[in-house]
Amino acid sequence: MIELLLMAVISGVLMGIIYGLIGIGMNILYGVMRIVNFAHGEFMMLGAYMAFTLNRLWGLNSLESIFVVLPLFFILGILLHALFYERIQQSDDPEIASFLTFFGISLVITSVILLIWKADPRGVPFPFSRVSWFIGPVFLPLGRLISAGVCALAIGIISVFLYRTYTGKAVRAIIENRDAVSILGIDVRRVSALVFGIGLSIVAITGCLVTLSFPAITPVQGQTYTTIAFLVIVLGGLGTPLGALLGGLVYGLAESVSSVFMPVALSPVVAFVILILMVMVRPQGLLGKVSTRI
After folding, report:
1. Chain-wide mean pLDDT for the chain?
2. Global model pTM greater than 0.70
3. 19 backbone dihedrals φ, ψ, rounded to 5°
4. Within 13 Å and on the Cβ side, how many CA atoms surround 208?
5. Which residue, 22, 161, 275, 293, has fewest beta-carbon neighbours within 10 Å?
């Protein structure tokens, strides 16, 4: 029982790091532009299917596909910003407008995936000779271990960008007070375009890593990852990558450890109970700041 619980904790930590990166992309998009990217998970699955296609065409594995898919998604983010940003911001309620816009985009992406790749489960061959490691009685799935490592590296790079660069500090300033930074001369529109590109680049990374962590992908998985991103943001708090990482760890541990004591199908219930308690006790999240609206 102790070994089983220890493996559940390790699995929860590994998945929590991956969930943290999933949440960061949506976190900064909402923080900077107040855009609710309801198509977050569908963009992830689009990245996963592109990794599958790159493997079939050129033999690239999941990690190598990142270097192709990431710049494509960055450009896609810039284009989507140019198409929708001004129209959404000029609406009476930008948050609702963005929610409806990206809900429509999520349906379009799912339909495109079904049209091109069909509904059959797809998978990218595992690129390593060993599938797992054993450290004593503990079983470590190599795919999730590598995915968590890449996600941790990406989170570290994003943190350096946000806290050590001028542009990153401008992003954090917009999250704190959008009106004040406009007065100070920061070009909010240009920074928002960059953030949109970065947000979809993060999605590209997680989409490719999904094919490394799980044996199969399907077009309907996107909504699950969108829900996870929302959970991570609520648990961790808005505007900080560390908060997203912490929220991902809480969710991953709750999901994994609870599966030891109850049926796997019921394990997400524990995470939702924690979410409800968090909203009741600390609605700004674990590391979020209290904000007031007039």
Report:
1. 86
2. yes
3. -60, -35
4. 28
5. 293
